[in-house]
């Protein structure tokens, strides 16, 4: 997603994640952008190590970016965690809270950090909250009550923030991916390879998605191409919902 925004003309893309140092994937994207013709020093990728659960720290990251760049146009709130299968009748309070802290509070704090800067500069902006198809359906045979609940909260957070921020020309939409092969799902799928086939059979496309298949929708939502779109949830699930 960071690469897509840089390619589309973003001057600087700040990636916020937990590790002190950025990972290999981030370094590869930065090296790729540096080689890309036509960007002429634009499309700068920056890395900031912060915990999205820390509201004060997140607001400070927003201020730092605003001070350095003099603007804030788009934000993608994507941090999320998924816990192992746990019976909903036995679900421990601490584990439930841990998921909410990242998937709900962290998403709010990220959106606030960017939205406060968009408000400060007065040029509007676009905030994209990464929800999930699991916010509006339940993954069959998966005991993920905390994750599913958290993603439903993101859908309603989107509508609520969109209504409050519309007059400031700050748009808020959610993106709900279906099954995508990423580090999060690989940690689960790679231990039980038969699940990959099962997940693939759950949508009419007969396969799970790739992260790059979210590039187009993110670029569209972040840009003026979607200037009348707010409070919407965009599903990219290979048709999982259609069945
Ligand atoms: N992979 C899928 O099939 C799928 C489907 C629907 C929605 N999603 C959502 O997409 C988003 C990205 O997930 P992904 O699949 O790329 O998994 P991922 O595990 O690769 O990415 C999640 C990222 O969140 C970061 N993170 C976790 N806790 C954090 C914290 N406290 N502070 C800062 N960063 C933190 C992790 O370090 C990681 O980089 C998540 O919100 C996830 O719920 C994924």
How would you explain this protein's 3D organization?
- This protein has one domain (72-242): NAD(P)-binding Rossmann-like Domain (Rossmann fold).
- The protein contains 8 helices and 6 strands; from the N terminus they run αβαβαβαβαβαααβ.
- It has helices spanning 2-7, 24-35, 55-69, 93-121, 145-165, 183-189, 194-200, 215-222, and strands at residues 12-17, 44-49, 74-77, 125-130, 170-177, 233-236.
- The longest helix is centred in the middle third of the chain and has 29 residues, at 93-121.
- The mean pLDDT is 96.
- The structure holds nicotinamide-adenine-dinucleotide (NAD).
- Residues 17-18, 51-53, 78-81, 102, 106, 130, 132, 177, 179-180, 182-185 line the site of nicotinamide-adenine-dinucleotide.
- Keywords: NADP, Oxidoreductase.
- This is NAD(P)-binding protein.
- GO terms for molecular function: oxidoreductase activity, acting on NAD(P)H, oxygen as acceptor; oxidoreductase activity, acting on the CH-OH group of donors, NAD or NADP as acceptor.
Q: What descriptors fit this protein?
A:
243 residues, alpha/beta, Rossmann fold, four-stranded parallel beta sheet, two-stranded parallel sheet, 8 helices, 43% helix, binds nicotinamide-adenine-dinucleotide, Sc_DH/Rdtase_CS
Ligand roster: nicotinamide-adenine-dinucleotide
Low-pLDDT sequence parts: none
**What is the number of E strands?**
6
Strand content: 5-15%
N-to-C order of helices and strands: HEHEHEHEHEHHHE
CATH topology: Rossmann fold
Report the radius of gyration as a whole number of Å: 18 Å
* SS field, number of helical segments: 8
Mean pLDDT across the residues is 96
The outline comes out as globular
The appropriate CATH architecture is 3-Layer(aba) Sandwich
User: Would you tell me the structural class of the helices and strands?
Assistant: alpha/beta
- Note the main sheet: 4 strands, parallel
Major β-sheet strand ordering: 3-4-5-6
Q: Write down the CATH class.
A: Alpha Beta
Family: Belongs to the short-chain dehydrogenases/reductases (SDR) family.
GO molecular function, one term: oxidoreductase activity, acting on NAD(P)H, oxygen as acceptor
Keywords: NADP, Oxidoreductase
InterPro entries: NAD(P)-bd_dom_sf, Sc_DH/Rdtase_CS, SDR_fam
